[in-house]
Design a protein that fits this description.
Alpha-Beta Plaits; two-stranded antiparallel sheet; 13 strands; 36% strand
Length: 245
């Protein structure tokens, strides 16, 4: 049985790397004694598949994980309440559902992500004008490093949408940033080559820098319709109330 889980990455745990989050999940699966299927060979590993890696330092309310279980005799609705207390604070399971074994992997299926990002370094009206000009441009050429190589790309096709939603929140974990800026909500494509929030800001203007960044949605296209990998109506988690200290 293949189960898809949705979880958050909020607060101080956002500074944890993708690899360390994977280790946290492996420990949580062991602690809760879930019957996770294992790979073959001399060093069996849990059959677990993560979605797109979240850049270290960014938050998310839309992370996904596919787990293959060795049995179908399991109450999937109970998984959020069962798993959240076994994970560090800030990692909370907010949905669980059985998916078809033939469902494409998250890495393959996710076509775009929606981000809320604080663009710091320019007033809100200036950021609004930069976004407007970017959306009207036929191409936007930037230089970036990928897999150890410096490449030049036209990133305009990767900006699916972008809008300035207001001023930045300015407060993250007690830190107050009085620099001018704006809150940008943007949908960025992941194929054929993903566009990261920091790269979007570089495309808007080299002087902009990231403030607080949060991934709010991941999107897949199924039968011509765009939807999330796990519907929001899936099982809700009890969050911190049930978390062990």
């Amino acid at each position: 049985m293949r189960v898809r889980l949705r979880f958050t990455k909020l607060g101080k745990v956002r500074w944890t790397s993708h690899r360390d989050v994977a280790r946290m999940w492996e420990r949580a699966l062991r602690r809760t004694s879930l019957p996770v299927a294992l790979t073959g060979g001399f060093t069996p590993r849990p059959k677990v598949s993560f979605g797109l890696a979240l850049p270290t330092g960014h938050e998310s309310v839309a992370e996904y994980l596919d787990v293959e279980l060795a049995t179908a005799a399991l109450d999937v609705d109970s998984l959020p309440a069962r798993l959240s207390p076994a994970l560090p604070r800030g990692l909370d399971v907010t949905g669980a559902a059985v998916i078809d074994d033939r469902t494409p992997s998250l890495q393959e299926a996710v076509s775009s992500c929606t981000w809320e990002l604080e663009a710091v370094g320019a007033p809100q009206d200036e950021v609004t004008d930069l976004v407007r000009r970017a959306l009207a441009a036929g191409s936007i050429i930037i230089t970036r490093e990928r897999k150890g190589m410096v490449v030049t790309d036209d990133v305009r096709p990767a900006i699916v949408s972008a809008v300035v939603a207001g001023p930045p929140s300015c407060i993250v974990e007690g830190f107050v940033d009085h620099q001018p800026g704006a809150l940008v909500v943007a949908e960025l494509a992941t194929h054929p080559r993903s566009l990261r929030p920091a790269e979007l800001l570089a495309a808007l203007h080299p002087g902009l820098r990231e403030g607080h960044v949060r991934r709010t949605n991941q999107w897949i296209v199924c039968d011509g319709a765009r939807r999330e990998p796990l519907p929001r109506v899936a099982t809700d988690a009890p969050h911190a109330e049930a978390r062990a200290s």
